[in-house]
Design goal:
The protein has about 110 residues and is mainly beta. About 0% of the residues lie in helices and about 60% in strands. The protein is flat and about 45 Å long.
Length: about 110
């Protein structure tokens, strides 16, 4: 059954909380929009990056998870930053968050893709 309430003019994942779209970039003939995403709920208890892609800036496909909080430097969430293309590679910059003894630390991180 089609969801009659689904947005057609705004980016919307199939589930969870979309927050803070960022990293709009064109790479290898596609447009990319990254976003903070809690795929498990509708609150801010978990943050990873999700990804939408488009070939025409009109029709978008949600690709799902793009960057996961999977290291000690980002175990408590992956927050916003940006993306750029250099030397035929996609460079994604993001803020990794970790908490230790109740203190939050932010770490600038980078992911590179061909």
């Amino acid at each position: 059954m089609e969801n009659i309430h689904k947005n057609i003019l705004h980016l919307e994942p199939s589930r969870g909380l979309l927050d803070d779209p960022n990293g709009l970039v064109q790479f290898n003939g596609k447009y990319y929009v990254f976003h903070q995403w809690n795929r498990f709920g509708l609150d801010h208890s978990y943050k990873e990056w999700g990804l939408f892609t488009s070939s025409d800036l009109l029709h978008w496909h949600h690709e799902g998870s793009a960057i996961l909080p999977d290291s000690m430097l980002d175990k408590d969430g992956i927050y916003s930053d940006s993306a750029t293309v250099a030397n035929d590679q996609l460079h994604v910059f993001f803020t990794g968050n970790s908490k230790q003894n109740g203190q939050r630390k932010s770490h600038q991180r980078q992911a590179v893709s061909n």
